[in-house]
Amino acid sequence: MFDYLIVGAGFAGSVLAERLANGSDKKILICDKRLHIAGNAYDFYNDEGILIHKYGPHIFHTNSAEVFDYLSNFTEWRSYEHRVLASVDGMLVPMPINLDTINKLYGLNLTAFEVEKFFESLAEKRDQIRTSEDVVVSKVGRELYEKFFKNYTRKQWGLDPSELDASVTARVPTRTNRDDRYFTDSLQAMPKHGYTRMFEKMLDNPNIKIMLNCDYRAIINQISFKEMIYTGPVDAFFDYRYGKLPYRSLEFKHESHDTERFQSAPVVNYPNEQAYTRITEFKYLTGQEHKKTSVVYEFPKAEGDPYYPIPRKENADIYAKYKVLAEARSDVHFVGRLATYKYYNMDQIVAQALMTYGKIVGMKRKEATIKTKPLEKSLVTTTILNNVSVASSKSASQTS
Ligand SMILES: Cc1cc2nc3c(=O)[nH]c(=O)nc-3n(C[C@H](O)[C@H](O)[C@H](O)COP(=O)(O)OP(=O)(O)OC[C@H]3O[C@@H](n4cnc5c(N)ncnc54)[C@H](O)[C@@H]3O)c2cc1C
Asked: What is the C-alpha to C-alpha distance for residues 89 and 93, in angstroms, rounded to an integer?
């Protein structure tokens, strides 16, 4: 008998598995329908021997020392500040828009004070900021909106910014200084040996059994457990009773090149002409030295794996109905970005999972995250239950 069946071995499921096993001595079965642990943060060494992120670039950044300290139990860090350039009008300029972006784009030599006036002169007044278009046009005007945001957002979301909640573009700041970091969080770093290695350490406990390539529906009637933690899509859990929650998906095109460097920044955004939105070169992120290099192109699409919940009022209304159903299930905890239908960064999901653990065991979050040294045992247990195909996380991390 397991104390918990955990559905999904991404951040939400794995943090809860770790805490319940190491912090409360519970017996856990964690399953994932993918062939590997680590959810969307999964990374692995490709055929060239280069560490790449299967589901697009994952950059860790947080303002929460608590989350950072917690994860530091399972990884060392490599200091890394992310930088992005955008390809606009045949030039590569810093993104988010800053003083250098404007000076380069318009051949000017403005100071920070002057660029503030420049933005003010372009900004269009809006009585109400409702949509993503309103956010940008009211800050920097229509021309910069069209160069940097309009087509990018259309490609990324399949919707015009005027049809999307303000929250989408509100995430991207505009700066009057020369700060070209993509994020400004106080803690920015990458797991030194990659995300998958960090997850392997999290799940390294004899009380945690892992089943991969396993949809929970295939085993739910064949195992016994007391409670469930569900980190999959909430609409699927309730058999789409109120309809499908819309997601935006991505197709990743991975390539390797016979050169040490492919591009002049970790990420180059392509807001306009190309069908892809951005190209990421992984060696910048990981710091790996290698004679070759690997990149990934992202092509947004409507169908496929659910990546980004689409932030529109009608979708929030559908989710609100599922939320009522979820809250009525006292035997199931719904945690993570798919189960709560909201885009969260990794650190926010770790915080959410730690909070859930605290609630389950009746502790405040701070107490719940107290460092417990993971048990020093063999890497990850392999389990075979009722002929469902299972792999250990060690071998999974070596698979592409
Ligand atoms: C392209 C992209 C780039 C991102 N970049 C960043 C970044 O740079 N920085 C950052 O902080 N965040 C980033 N994120 C967000 C980050 O991926 C999420 O915060 C994180 O993955 C959420 O963890 P999770 O456990 O909630 O979900 P997931 O990682 O998606 O894990 C859920 C798991 O549940 C499994 N599952 C679903 N249904 C079932 C089922 N029926 N049976 C068994 N298993 C099931 C899935 O296979 C999946 O592995 C990015 C997201 C995307 C899509």
From this structure: 10
Nearest to 117 by CA among 102, 104, 128, 135: 102
| Sheet strands side by side (includes 61-62) | 61-62, 187-191, 77-79
**Distance from the CA of 134 to the center of ligand 1, in angstroms?**
29
Hey, what are 108's tokens? 């000017």
How far, in Å, from the CA of 103 to the mean position of ligand 1?
38
Domains located in the chain, CATH noted: 2-43+192-245+309-399 (3.40.50.720), 96-170 (no CATH)
Residue 142 neighbours by CB distance under 10 Å: 14
Q: How far is the CA of 108 from the centre of ligand 1 (A)?
A: 42
Q: Which pair of structure tokens corresponds to residue 262?
A: 């492919």
Note the Cα 5 to chain centre separation in Å. 23
> Around 2, how many Cα atoms within 13 Å sit in the side-chain half-sphere?
25
The C-alpha angle with vertex 35 and arms to 211 and 60, in degrees rounded to 5, equals 100
Q: In angstroms, what CA-CA distances link 291 with 48, 194, 229, 262, 303?
A: 10, 20, 44, 11, 36
Q: Is the dihedral of CA 205, 211, 217, 220 positive or negative?
A: negative
* Cα–Cα dist 368/346, whole Å: 18
Is the previous residue joined to 206 through a cis bond, with omega within 30 degrees of 0? no
Q: What does the pLDDT look like over 196-245, one tens digit per residue? A: 999 999 999 999 999 999 999 999 999 999 999 999 999 999 999 999 99
In testing the pocket of ligand 1, which one of 346, 350, 388 has its CB within 8 Å of the most ligand atoms? Answer: 346
**Does residue 242's CB lie within 6 angstroms of at least one atom of ligand 1?**
no
Q: Output the CA–CA distances (angstroms, integers) from residue 209 to 7, 32, 391, in the order listed.
A: 12, 11, 11
Distance (Å, whole) CA 63 – CA 96 = 19
Ligand 1 mean position, distance from CA 337 (Å) = 7
Question: Which ligand 1 atom lies nearest to the CA of residue 56?
Answer: 1
- Ligand 1 in reach of 10 Cβ (< 6 A): yes
The model's pLDDT over 133-191, given as tens digits with 9 standing for 90+, comes to 999 999 999 999 999 999 999 999 999 999 888 888 777 789 999 999 999 999 999 99
Taking the C-alpha atoms of residue 309 and residue 56, their distance in angstroms, rounded to an integer, is 16
pLDDT of residue 54 exceeding 70: yes
Ligand 1 touching residue 337 (CB < 6 A): yes
